[in-house]
Design a protein that fits this description.
Shape: globular
Largest sheet: 9 strands, mixed
Distance between the termini: 65 Å
Radius of gyration: 25 Å
CATH architecture of one domain: 3-Layer(aba) Sandwich
Strand order of the largest sheet: 2-1-11-10-12-13-14-15-16
Structural class: alpha/beta
Helix content: 25-40%
């Protein structure tokens, strides 16, 4: 029996997340639970499970002071940190429902969520963060207190008429502290059917929906993942995806809690490369975009290297890829000489592959990629160089993991096999449908939306098209995102965009073509590579007009055609529009999980879109 199976079986009597936390504290009270950077002392600080438990108790006492009803909602608007964990665990211990929100989401979205879920408590980082939220809605009738984590910015003010009290975290916790020797509070009864979170979906095309996840939903997913992948008490996770994302909550938070691993909270996305080398994680949980950024920088550096180094890199990637294919029984493994590859690999590993793995800390046992499809070029590159990339598939509505590859059964063109206890089938138009203990209870206050995503016999419609081959699932498209041109051709925009972004000059891509005679690409360029391209075309990279010069359009289109050559001719973009200004969460062009907000982008680029089709009419 493998270690993953054994770890999963030790949790068979666990029904709630509160039980999971209590079991962990009792089992390894002095083990390192979390590590985060303290800017004041410029040092990394570790926290044991016992220390975290004590902090949770102080929060429980403060929550009790409000005498909230069982099931009341507590909204958390914090970056990934120990405070976010303690608020979450205290809420769960008291039968409350955490509502995690992205720390840099827009005030309008946050205000909508607060009123939609009727939050009683909001925890924010600073008063400056709360101020724009406080004015975006006329009132928050259910909000009783806003707790500000940064006490330096938390000077208390009297609440406006009918408004919430705003108070610093330290003050609020201190005024509700229990005296030494006081009897412990009565434990709230929570069972597996109670809500463990309301997680709001990203809202790429409309207002976000609150996905209701129960303790049973999440616990079942943790057990199923542990039965598939070996997670150990000695593992170190680097956490940088937002805890408002169910992928990170389950795999980057509750999973190491179950196994007893340590979670290191990255300082910021900009410092991930440095934090990887410091933390030297054994498990990395990420969306494809992070791997794609490493790949783009790697390609940029290779482009500046000598021909010999480029050849050496290609050889290492090709030999490593063939070895990976043979180890996992992939058809491509038949290519080349296994004996020759075995002789060459030690040298290629020492000269090339090990250096690439060191960029990720040098000791990864699992590099998990989920949330979106990983491009074939990126996957083959890193797998060939020995990075243990494991793709999976899931969604917020399934808590989230539905399927995943395993270290000893890894087919990167697929998202692996369904987890234990998860049933999958193909419905109309090859739509993947899911049934199991991890499927949500429904959407908060949206019975019609809930009914719309469930079949009459109780299966969740994922909206994704799939193929199931020998038990492995391959996602082939998105039903709702199929783009239909005016000539009737059907094109999956996300797949096309992913292929174009394999070229490192393109940081972001959105293709347009719905009810249009052909496909166009709207792209955000890598600034450094744009400067190089402009120089080769003898143009001034600092002049905004250069971006729209005819030679630039021709050069970019040539690269786009090369990147999308595997697509039918009608899917290859015939026009391009470029910018250097990125689409960000802050300017509301992408979601907190880095997905394009297509409606918002179409509105912003309306004039440019019309101009392209008028020019090429």
């Amino acid at each position: 029996m493998n270690q993953a199976k054994t770890t999963s079986e030790t949790l068979q009597d666990i029904d709630t997340l509160g039980q999971l936390f209590a079991r962990r504290v009792a089992a390894t009270p002095d083990g390192e639970a979390y590590r985060q950077f303290d800017a004041a002392s410029n040092t990394w600080i570790g926290f044991t499970w016992q220390q975290v438990s004590q902090r949770v108790t102080t929060w429980i006492n403060a929550i009790d002071s409000l005498q909230l009803a069982h099931g009341s909602r507590i909204a958390v608007l914090l970056p990934n940190c120990v405070d976010a964990v303690t608020v979450d665990q205290a809420a769960l211990a008291r039968g409350m429902v955490p509502v995690p929100m992205h720390a840099i989401d827009t005030p309008g979205s946050i205000g909508y969520i607060l009123n939609d879920c009727q939050a009683s408590i909001l925890v924010v980082t600073s008063r400056a963060q709360w101020l724009p939220i406080s004015t975006v809605c006329e009132q928050y009738p259910h909000l009783k207190v806003v707790v500000v984590a940064d006490d330096a910015q938390a000077a208390e003010t009297s609440p406006a008429a009918g408004g919430p009290r705003v108070v610093g975290m330290r003050q609020w916790l201190a005024e509700n502290a229990q005296p030494a020797g006081a009897a412990p509070s009565t434990q709230t009864v929570t069972n597996e059917t109670h809500l463990a979170a309301i997680v709001y979906t990203s809202g790429t095309t409309g207002k976000p929906k609150g996905v209701m996840l129960t303790h049973r939903n999440i616990i079942s997913n943790i057990k199923a993942v542990l039965a598939r992948v070996d997670v150990r008490a000695s593992d170190v996770f680097l956490s940088f995806l937002p805890l408002s994302h169910t992928f990170e909550r389950t795999i980057g938070y509750y999973l190491p809690l179950a196994a007893g691993g340590c979670v290191v909270y990255a300082r910021s996305p900009a410092l991930i490369a440095e934090d990887l080398k410091m933390a030297r994680p054994t498990v990395l949980v990420s969306v494809p975009r992070i791997y794609e950024r490493f790949y783009a920088k790697l390609q940029e550096k290779l482009g500046q290297s000598s021909g010999f180094k480029q050849s050496l890199f290609r050889a290492a990637q090709q030999v490593g890829w063939r070895r990976f294919c043979r180890a996992n029984g992939l058809p491509e493994g038949a290519a080349g000489s296994a004996l020759l590859d075995a002789l060459l690999w030690p040298l290629l590993d020492r000269l090339v592959a090990r250096n690439i793995r060191d960029l990720f800390g040098g000791r990864l046992r699992a590099a998990v990629s989920g949330g979106a499809a990983l491009s074939q070029a990126v996957g083959q590159c890193f797998l060939g160089l020995g990075l243990p990339l494991l793709q999976g598939y899931g969604m917020t509505e399934t808590s989230p993991v539905v399927a995943a590859n395993a270290p000893d059964d890894n087919w990167p063109a697929t998202v692996g096999r369904a987890l234990e206890g998860v049933e999958v089938r193909l419905g109309e138009n090859s739509e993947l449908q899911v049934r199991g203990a991890g499927v949500m209870q429904g959407y908060w206050n949206r019975p019609d939306d809930t009914k719309a995503v469930m079949t009459e016999d109780g299966w969740l419609r994922t909206g994704d098209q799939a193929v199931i081959e020998q038990g492995r699932i391959r996602i082939s498209g998105r039903l709702k995102e199929i783009m239909v041109t005016s000539t009737g051709e059907k094109i999956p925009p996300a797949d096309l965009e992913l292929a174009i972004m394999a070229d490192p000059v393109f940081e972001q891509v959105m293709v347009v073509g719905e009810n249009r005679p052909f496909v166009s690409a709207f792209v955000v360029l890598n600034r450094a590579l744009w400067t190089q391209l402009a120089a080769t075309l003898k143009l001034d990279a600092q002049d905004p007009a250069s971006l729209h010069a005819a030679p630039v359009r021709e050069a970019l289109l040539a690269r786009i055609k090369e990147a999308s050559k595997a697509f039918p001719y009608y899917a290859v973009p015939r026009a391009v529009w470029a910018t250097l200004d990125p689409w960000t969460i802050e300017n509301s062009m992408i979601t907190p999980t880095l997905k394009l907000k297509r409606n918002a982008l179409h509105a912003r680029l309306a004039q440019a879109i019309d101009a392209i089709y008028q020019r090429n009419a």
